[in-house]
Amino acid sequence: MAFSEFEQKRCEKLLKDFCEQQGPGPHIRAKLRWDFSIAGQSVELLETRPRWNNPSEYSSLGFAKATYVKGTKEWKVYWMRADLKWHRYWPCPSVKTLEKFLELVDRDEEAAFKG
Fold first, then answer.
1. Which residue range is the domain that position 19 belongs to?
2. Nearest to 105, CA basis, from 65, 74, 76, 72
3. Is the distance from CB of 36 to CB of 45 less than 8 angstroms?
4. How many CB atoms lie within 10 A of CB 85?
């Protein structure tokens, strides 16, 4: 089941603000920026950049993901490993709020999200 319309708008605002404030600065955003996607109960933070062989096209790669579990009222936290698969973030496998997830990504104490 997907988020309600209210929850969707709230998530979009939080993620948009986070990407603008914590992502690459305005001077480099034409070549590198942070975006997000929401699908079902999951939110994903993406790094978007021009394709190396066609700079007019952009490609995105996820670097952090959280999936809301209604039964436990928690967000499961994932990070993208070099094998391009999502893996649970074991230093903190779940958080209670989307804000806590974004704080976790911002701190990045294990250098898992931003390298």
1. 5-107
2. 65
3. yes
4. 8
User: In the Cβ-directed half-sphere of 84, how many Cα atoms lie within 13 Å?
Assistant: 2
- What pLDDT does 3 receive? 83
CB atoms near residue 45 (< 10 Å): 25
pLDDT (tens digit per residue) in 54-103: 999 999 999 999 999 999 999 999 999 999 999 999 999 999 999 999 99
> What is the DSSP annotation of 43-72?
EEEEEEEEETTEEEEEEEEEEEEEEEETTT
**Tally of residues, the chain:** 115
Structure tokens at 14: 């939080």
How many CA atoms, within 13 angstroms, populate the side-chain half-sphere of residue 105? 29
Let me know if residue 78 belongs to a domain: yes
Give me the number of domains the chain comprises. 1
Residue 84 falls inside a structural domain? yes
pLDDT (mean) for 28-45: 95
